[in-house]
Amino acid sequence: MGAALDTERDALGKQGGTTEGSVAVGVTPSTPKKPADARVQRTLSRDPEAFGAITGREEEWRFTPVARLRGLHDGTASATGVLDVTVTAPDGVTVETIGPEHKLVGTALVPADRPAALAMRDFKEGQLIRISGELTEPVHVSLVGHGEVSYGHLVVDLAPFAQAVVILDHTGDATHSGGVELRVGDSASLTLVSLQDWDNTAVHLSAQAARLGRDARFKSVVVTLGGDLVRLTPTVSYAGPGGDAELLGLAFGDAGQHLEHRLLVEHGAPHCKSRVTYKSAVQGEGAHSVWIGDVLIRPEATGTDTYELNRNLLLTADARADSVPNLEIETGEIAGAGHASATGRFDDEQLFYLQSRGIAPDEARRIVVQGFFAEILQQIGVPSLEERLLAAIERELGRVVVEEASQ
């Protein structure tokens, strides 16, 4: 089975559109760079009026079906409720309710678009989670929607040398926009698992920003399965040298779902590292996944080591995946930088290989998809959550097998 899964990974690059690139120390990229201020000059503000109206023609919104945002993008969505938020935490953790005026709000996340600014301005009840020491159990944040419009905000403040796993578990139905700020202290280590397991009627916009201190470690695992439209914008920045960030993501979209992830890793300190690996599978008419991966290496970020990878699997012919990696380098003194992106269908030869060894077609499909996602799921490190997600993926695969059988 292992050989088959290796074949599947190779097949993606052969059947679909593929983009790859790398930059070594002292080598000038062969393709023209963007203007030096392409990212540096992007608008950052807590004031929604600092951003222009969203029409869907802007670069950052060109893949998003704006008409389905239900007013979260233009301020016409008035909050009628709040998510039910329950924080389950071990000793060494304090939790308090905060508002927009709290001194830590905006210290890791400064909105880069109008919806994020609106959410930061209009949320009524947010949560501040302070963590010290080395936690042996994860902090579980349950966020349950009940069909109302809501805004929210979460700040996780990790003390120097602390270690923790934080799980954000979104379920139910909601039209929700919120911000997540992650302050990772010097030499601290944080793993964030953000699960979007909404009902398929939900709309969710979220800006997630991590700010890493000196020699800090950060791992993000984003899993998006549910929702009519989900658009997440994770960002990472470095407040000191030696930071290490790993961003992992998994998305599985069904008919009509729009699942979009836009990442920015901003290297602004020397000798920092980042790795990005996102994978998606889509099936059914109108299913659409979008991945945008931006990496900016500023002039002062010497010794940077970065790589980003995106793989997309089209399970049916009427599904779509868009993948755009961007790498902007403003110094030649780096350890290495590169990216790779591929989108493709199942490899017919691989399926034949599995079936020729007595594996039924539907089981062969399951083996391939499970292997495709295994690299991400195994990084979660919470067995009960991994089992839940595997079961959810099984249910999704069952749908497409039934659809094919009925045709």
Characteristics of this structure?
globular, 407 residues, disordered N terminus, alpha/beta
Topology readout:
Blueprint: H1 2-15, E1 18-23, E2 84-88, E3 93-98, H2 114-122, E4 126-131, E5 139-158, E6 163-184, E7 189-196, E8 203-212, E9 217-224, E10 229-238, E11 244-253, E12 258-267, E13 273-282, E14 288-297, E15 305-314, E16 320-329, E17 336-345, H3 348-355, H4 361-377, H5 383-406
Parallel strand pairs: 4-5, 5-6, 6-7, 6-8, 7-9, 8-10, 9-11, 10-12, 11-13, 12-14, 13-15, 14-16, 15-17
Antiparallel strand pairs: 1-17, 2-5, 3-4
Helix pairs in contact: 1-4, 4-5
Structural description of this entry:
There is one protein chain. This protein has one domain. By secondary structure, the protein is of the alpha/beta class.
The beta-strand count equals 17
Q: What helical percentage do the residues reach?
A: 10-25%
Enumerate how many helices there are, as a single number: 5
Give helix and strand order, one letter per element, not per position. Answer: HEEEHEEEEEEEEEEEEEEHHH
| Amount of beta strand | 35-45%
Mean pLDDT: 88
**What structural category do the secondary elements indicate?**
alpha/beta
Tally of structural domains: 1
- Major pleated sheet: 17 strands, mixed
N-to-C terminal Cα separation, in Å?
29 Å
